[in-house]
Amino acid sequence: MTHNLAALLSSVVSRFYITLILFLSFQFTFLFWVDPEHFLAYIILSVLVFMILVFVMSLLIRTNFFLQAQHKLDSDHVMLTFDDGPHPINTHRTLDILKEKGVKAMFFLIGKNVEQYPDVVERIVQEGHLVGGHSYSHQFSFGFIMGRELNREILRTQKILSEITGQEEKYFRPPFGVTNAHIAYVVKAHALKTIGWSLRTYDTATDFTSKKINQIIQKTRRGSIVLLHERMDSTCDALPLLIDGIRNKGMEFGLLTPRNETAK
Ligand SMILES: [Zn+2]
Which segments constitute the NodB homology domain (predicted)? Predict the structure, then answer.
C-alpha cells in the first residue's frame, strides 16, 4: 500500500518536489523551536544544505531525482550507446565495426555536429541504429541555463534529427548526465524520453587498456546500457574486443525498441 502510494506520488511529482515539500514542512515545524537569536543562522544553514543536496543530485541521473530516465533495458540484451557524435571519421569507423559484428547500437548526437555531418546521421539511421538528442552545443553551463535558452538547446537538436530521420525523435540524453527541475520541465512538456546508463566506461577520462576492456566486460550485466564516446580513438580501437568479450559471456546486443516503433 505504502509502496503503491509512493509509486503513484512519484509518477505525478518528481522526487525533487517531494523533497522540497518535505523540506519546507520541516522548516515550518522546526522554526517554532529555534531560538530567535539563532533564527537567521538556522535559515542560512538549512537553505545551504538543501542547495548542496540539489546540486549533488543534479549530477546523479541514475537516482531519478528530477525526472524518470531509463537506465536499463527491459530485455536481457546489452545496449551500447555512443555520445557526442556525429564525428566525421570515428562514427564511420564505429559503424563499420558494428556492421561487421552485426550489432545495433544507439547514438546520442550533438545538434551542431549533426548540422555539420548530416550524411553521417543518415548512415547511422540507414544501418538500423537508434538516435537521440544530446543538446545543441553540449555547453559546460548546460546545468545552469533555463527558460527559452534551455528549450532551444534541447529541442533544436530533436527537431534537426527528426527532419533527417523523417520521424519524431523523442529520445534524449542530457550532456554530462546533468538533470534539474528546469530540464525535467522541458522533457515533460515535450514528452521526451530520457535515456541514462547503467555502466559508465569513463572512456573520455582514461584510454581503453586491455585491463579496462576486461573490467567493463566483467561489469556488463543483462539489460546493461553502456556509455561510450566514439570520438575517442581508443574507444574505437577497443570496440571489437568489447563486443566479442560481452558475447563470450553469453550476452547479445539489442535496442530499446526497434526503429519505426513509436517512442513513448
Ligand atoms: Zn556528452
Answer: 76-254
pLDDT, one tens digit per residue, over 16-48 is 888 888 888 888 788 778 787 888 888 888 889
Among residues 158, 196, 155, the alpha carbon closest in space to that of 67 is found at: 196
Phi, psi of 106 (to 5 degrees): -125, 140
Question: Could you tell me the residue range of the domain that residue 24 belongs to?
Answer: 2-58
CATH of the domain at 108: 3.20.20.370
Summarised one tens digit per residue, pLDDT across range 156-168 is: 999 999 999 999 9
Distance of CA 100 from the midpoint of ligand 1 (Å): 26
101: which 3 cell numbers? 559484428
Mean pLDDT over 62-73 rounds to 92
User: How many A from CA of 63 to the centre of ligand 1?
Assistant: 19
CA 19 to ligand 1 center in whole angstroms = 28
The reply to whether 83 belongs to the active site is yes
Q: Do 89 and 142 fall within a single domain? A: yes
The residue from 83, 84, 92, 129 that is catalytic is 83
Domain shared by 100 and 25, yes or no? no
Give the integer Cα–Cα distance in Å for 228 and 260.
24
The answer to whether residue 84 is catalytic is no
CA distance 92 to 248: 25
Question: Averaged over 119-135, what is the pLDDT?
Answer: 97
In a domain, 27, yes or no: yes
In a shared domain, residues 15 and 95: no
Residue 208 lies in a domain: yes
